[in-house]
Design brief:
Layout: H1 3-15, H2 18-25, H3 29-43, E1 48-51, E2 54-57, H4 59-81, E3 91-97, H5 99-106, H6 111-116, E4 120-126, E5 140-143, E6 152-167, H7 168-174, H8 180-183, E7 189-190, E8 215-216, H9 220-228, E9 234-237, H10 238-241, E10 247-250, E11 256-265, H11 272-287, H12 289-292
Parallel strand pairs: 3-4, 3-5, 7-8
Antiparallel strand pairs: 1-2, 5-11, 6-9, 6-10, 6-11
Helix pairs in contact: 1-2, 1-3, 1-4
C-alpha cells in the first residue's frame, strides 16, 4: 500500500472534497482522483460516495479513517526516530485559534514569520470551534483549556482578561450600569449558548446569574462589532476592545481572567516547521505581554 495514497485519502476525508484536498497537497485533482480510485481497488472496498458537491465517507471509509490516522501518527514518529526531523523550514502548518485571538492578534503578525521562512506556508483558521489534533484538523491549536488526556504537548501562552463594554453612543443614550442589578435594565450581548465549544467561554455567569442576552453571536469578533454598533453591552476581550476608541469600559471593577494554551500532537514534536511556528507564537506574545494583562 502506497503511503502517498494514504495521505491523499486523509486529505479528502478531512476536507470532504477532492478539489480542496488537491489544493492542500499540491496535486492535480484528476491525478488525485485516480490515486484515490487505485487505493479503493487495492483495498477492494469503496471508501467514499463521490458527489458533485463533495465526498462522503462510506461505513468502510469511516473504519479505514481510524486506521489511516494511526498510520499517519506512526509514520511521523518513525520519521523523527530515524533522524528525519524535517530540518528544512518549509511546508504547511495549520493553526487553529479562537476567532478573537486569531483575527485580532495573530493575523496582523504572522507575516513576520513568513518573511523569515519564505518556504513556510501558514494556514490560520480563526473560528469559534474546537480542533482535533489527532485528526490533523490543525497542526497547532490555541485553546482556552489545557488538555487532560491524549498524546498532546501543551504550553501556556498567556493569561488574558475580559471586561464589560458599551459604545459611547450607547452610554450617551442609555447611561452606564454601575453594578449587576443595574445591568439588568440594559440590552446584553453574549455567545449562542448551545454553540459554546468550551466552558471557559461561559463568562456571563461570573457577572450575573441570568444574563438573558437579547442578541447572541457565536463569535468574539462579532460580539465586538455588535457592541460597537450600540446593540448592547457585552463581555469583550480587553486586548481587542482597547483598539477601539468608540468603546467604553463599564463596571470597571468587574474583570474576568482566562488563559490561552498552545497544543500540538506529540508525533509532531520533532517537526521543525511545527516547532518554529509554536516558538514564534510564544515569541510575539512575550513581546506584547502587556496587551493581554
Amino acid at each position: 500500500m502506497n503511503w502517498d495514497d494514504i495521505r491523499i485519502f486523509l486529505a479528502v476525508a478531512r476536507s470532504g472534497q477532492i478539489l480542496a484536498a488537491s489544493k492542500r497537497l499540491g496535486v492535480n485533482h484528476a491525478t488525485l482522483s485516480r490515486r484515490l480510485t487505485a487505493l479503493e481497488e487495492a483495498l477492494k472496498t469503496r471508501l467514499f460516495i463521490r458527489r458533485t458537491n463533495g465526498c462522503e465517507l462510506t461505513a468502510q471509509g469511516e473504519m479505514f479513517l481510524a486506521s489511516a490516522e494511526r498510520m499517519e501518527t506512526e509514520m511521523l514518529a518513525a520519521q523523527s526516530s530515524l533522524g528525519r526531523t524535517d530540518t528544512a523550514i518549509a511546508g504547511t502548518v495549520r493553526i487553529g485559534a479562537p476567532d478573537g485571538f486569531g483575527v485580532s492578534f495573530l493575523a496582523p503578525r504572522m507575516g513576520r514569520l513568513i518573511e523569515r521562512h519564505p518556504e513556510l506556508r501558514i494556514q490560520l483558521v480563526p473560528v469559534p470551534r474546537a480542533f482535533s489534533l489527532s485528526s490533523r484538523e490543525a497542526d497547532i491549536a490555541i485553546t482556552l483549556e489545557r488538555p487532560e488526556q491524549g498524546r498532546l504537548v501543551s504550553s501556556k501562552l498567556t493569561d488574558y482578561t475580559l471586561g464589560l463594554y458599551a459604545s459611547r453612543d450607547y452610554v450617551e443614550a442609555h447611561g452606564a450600569p454601575e453594578d449587576a442589578e443595574a445591568l439588568k435594565a440594559h440590552r446584553r450581548i453574549a455567545y449562542v449558548e448551545d454553540l459554546i465549544f468550551s466552558q471557559s467561554l461561559n463568562f456571563t455567569g461570573e457577572v450575573m446569574r441570568n444574563w438573558d442576552a437579547g442578541f447572541e453571536i457565536s463569535s468574539a469578533t462579532g460580539q465586538t462589532e455588535a457592541v460597537r454598533a450600540s446593540a448592547g453591552i457585552g463581555i469583550l476581550h480587553n486586548y481587542i476592545a482597547r483598539q477601539y476608541p468608540d468603546l467604553v469600559r463599564v463596571m470597571a471593577e468587574t474583570s474576568i481572567q482566562r488563559t490561552y494554551w498552545t497544543i500540538f500532537h506529540e508525533s509532531a514534536r520533532d517537526l521543525a516547521r511545527v516547532r518554529i511556528v509554536a516558538d514564534f507564537l510564544h515569541e510575539i506574545v512575550r513581546e506584547e505581554k502587556g496587551v493581554f494583562l
